[in-house]
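TEACHING EXERCISE
Course module: macromolecular assemblies
Task: Read the component lines below, then compare them to the predicted structure of the full complex.
Student: A.B.
Group: 4
Components provided:
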Amino acid sequence: DARVTQTPRDKVTEMGQEVTMRCQPILGHNTVFWYRQTMMQGLELLAYFRNRAPLDDSGMPKDRFSAEMPDATLATLKIQPSEPRDSAVYFCASGRGLAGYGEQFFGPGTRLTVL
Amino acid sequence: AQSVTQLGSHVSVSEGALVLLRCNYSSSVPPYLFWYVQYPNQGLQLLLKYTSAATLVKGINGFEAEFKKSETSFHLTKPSAHMSDAAEYFCAVSVVNAGGTSYGKLTFGQGTILTVHP
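Instructor-supplied answer key:
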């Protein structure tokens, strides 16, 4: 059963520290999405990639967030420096892009707490 | 641009009662529509999808949704609620071009939290 995996599942860190979250998309999927979910803002799209190229990262605070896909099996989201307002659950999702209808498959999320 | 609106941020039903979660869409081209479910402390799981093959779509766990073009709706229903259905439900529409090709990006509704009482 193919699934999106995310690590770590939980992360507690102190303000100012660097945080790196990793995602392994489903094999064969060529689009990858990063979302952030909070009680106040709901589900927000931070960035997405197609064929490893960033297509839209307008949802990310540019000064502290960065997203990359070093290869087709790994996507990373980095926050440096982290702030308490970054506390949220971060989801990665993957899909078949132009070859599908747009459905996305979500990972279990990384719960980030910044103290 | 495509968008969806979920009517009601919270819905409460009794176990065994009908579940009805409402979703209306806006799209200038035939849409692809989805319902996702999110159980506590989990990611979103695809419940069902409409891709124009049939207007009544059946999904997992006994849920179904009917696409009604005249009402621009895609409401989610289940005849008899179970305690395990308690979760948050998201309606989503695929962003497509004028030719109906999906860009692979979804626009989500704000979510509806379903509570099931014994």
